[in-house]
Amino acid sequence: MNDQKRFIGIDMSKRSFEVAVVNNADPQILRKKYKATHEDRQEFISSLRKDDVVALETGNSSFILAKLIKKQVCCFLQSITCQRTCLSLTLIIINYQ
Fold first, then answer.
1. How many angstroms separate the Cα of 79 from the Cα of each of 12, 39, 58, 93?
2. Containing H/E element for 85?
3. What are the backbone dihedrals phi and psi of residue 75, each rounded to the nearest 5 degrees, phi first?
4. Is 2 helix (H, G, I), strand (E, B) or coil?
5. Predicted confidence (pLDDT) per residue in 35-79, tens digit
6. In the chain, where are the structural domains located?
């Protein structure tokens, strides 16, 4: 198992979702944007590890993705926040480290 713990924030929109990833070994924020299609959701889900910590903005378009994430990871958070979810959650986690 990989020793680097990853923290993932997801910002949802109607047609896409953006993922921001930071790990405990490197403060650099990695970003990737996915389309809200079955194929892109599956691509993202397959990249998750069991020990990932995932935070997802709650909204109408997030429920399908939330169900898939809950099956994949041990720590999952849903929040009702503004459009800056990925960046703000990632910055909080970096400061927490």
1. 11, 25, 5, 15
2. helix 85-96
3. -120, 115
4. coil
5. 999 999 999 999 999 888 888 877 777 778 888 888 888 776 765
6. 6-96
Distance CA 15, CA 47 (A): 20
Distance of CA 82 to the CA centre of its chain: 15
pTM of the predicted structure, to 2 decimals: 0.73
- The pLDDT tens digits for 69-78 are 888 887 767 6
Residue 20 structure tokens: 């921001």
CATH architecture of the domain with range 6-96: 2-Layer Sandwich (3.30)
Give CA separation, 14 vs 18, 28, 37, 44, 72, in Å: 11, 27, 11, 17, 23
